[in-house]
Amino acid sequence: MAYQLPALPYDYSALEPYISRRTLEFHHDKHHAAYVNNFNQAVAGTDLDNKPIEEVIKITAGDPSKVGIFNNAAQAWNHSFYWLCMKPNGGGTPTGALADKIKEDFGSFEKFVEEFKTAGATQFGSGWAWLVLDNGKLKVTKTPNADNPMTSGQIPLLTMDVWEHAYYLDYQNRRPDYINDFITKLINWDFVAENFAKAMG
Ligand code: MN3
Q: How far is the CA of 139 from the centre of ligand 1 (A)?
């Protein structure tokens, strides 16, 4: 059962001027599509083919003989999740139970922002910054390349792609500017709050 490339949840130009149509066309239609196609080809006809992609990611993590499957499965999932973490006129601050929990676990929303910025800016080379729920506690973490915190039992609530292909056409080498716009103009806190509610059961 092939994994489907999800359509973007907004128009290609909806995140302008922060993320351009051109970036989303390449990022979604070329990069994400390639991960999905490579994943489907790699598992076709194997016993991994019928499993949910999250399970494939957990099963293949850390297995040197399955690194190609892991990388493409995780990148397929990470990007599907990343698109939903943004929306036009996003940013601002979370509300309700999520806002309370951020204050409880980080001290303040500003502290969370600082940690999230640092995670994104200090991820050397390619990777992802995350807000996760880890044993009932919110944490900021970062992962290299395709890695996903679900392989260490954490529940992803928010992610930010810091591979160069996510921002290079719009920001060139200025990753911190992309990170700042992602946080202040793009984060879809409603989606993060839904993930938080589900994770808390
Ligand atoms: Mn990407």
A: 22
